[in-house]
Design a protein that fits this description.
Length: 396
Amino acid sequence: MSKILHSFAFWIIVAVIFLLPFGQLTRIDLFLPCTFYAHDILLGILGIFGVVFSSQKQKSRASVNKGIGIFVIIATVSLLFALPHLSFSEFFISAFYLLRWGVYALLYSVIISFSLRQRQLLLSLLFVSGVIFAFLGLLQYGLYPNLRNLYYAGWDPHLYRLFSTFFDPNFAGIYLVLTFFLGLARVFRQKKTSIFVFVALGMILIALLLTYSRSSYLAFFAGLCVLGLVKKKLRTISVAFVVLVCVGVVLLPRPFGEGVRLERTNTFIARVGNWTEAIDVFRKSPGLGVGFNTYAFRRTKVPKNSQIISHSVSGVDNSYLFVLATTGIIGFFGYSYLWFLIIRQAFANENRNTFILLSMIVPVMLHALFVNTLFYSWIMIWVWIVLASTEVMECK
């Protein structure tokens, strides 16, 4: 029975991985702003069996499951304390997103129960999935460079930028960064690398440049610094990055539109205003916050234009401020403890996957200063799959 469950879980995760490149195209709107995606259905099914896997005796040096449990408890308590200030629908929507976060986190418990061969296969498939995402992004840039046509549906009017199937160049950018370093790890670990990997890395890099996402560029540089430190070639890597940036700035197409101007300041000013508002929300309830994912209902400034639905109306452009505002200082320490366990795992003496983990952790955590990266569905799934697939552990 256990073998059947393992096989069933493995193929569900494989299906999820190949759904990731299609992003918002798998979106299902039941009632706004509560939405779910095709991969949510599969992971929901997987979540039913997740308890079976998490109850198995497993030795994990990082004890990441402990950190997951602590944060889920704190987030649940914060949401319950916020109940008097919420309508039933508001509470239901917030609870749904907390449930989704928990189901995503169950990926960790399930995947670490797989064999080493299965986990390595998942990493390979995840890279292929990211390559498909990059290809779709280049296709989008060539055929559909104007997202203004979907402004009525609540998407930001990005023009002449690669946003792929995420409809957002910043999230697309960090996804490409993670995929690039996952592929680069294959190059360093294998004696012979197929031409497909090098072509794929080149395509991913071009796609990344066309996002014009400065936060993603910064995350990419951080990943290169990780590479330089691990391989003890920091100076060489830094020079290569500077040359790449200079060449990119000169050769990148600069058609009409504010978004392609790398020196633009309007987005930074908007982010500062967003961060200030998040701090104001945090001050309402500094201990346990205003309730996990209730930011949309407790924010201090609500857009006056209610005719246009916005997919970013509830967002905080900083994952750490999001945690602080919605779960308070207690939740912030709980979430920080989870990431402490993740980072400790990356530096485990027996861990041969330190480069893969650090090239994920550093770029993602840096990117999360400017966008709510750590709570974006596709990034969360990517992180849990890579984290579990590179875990140093023994299974009984």
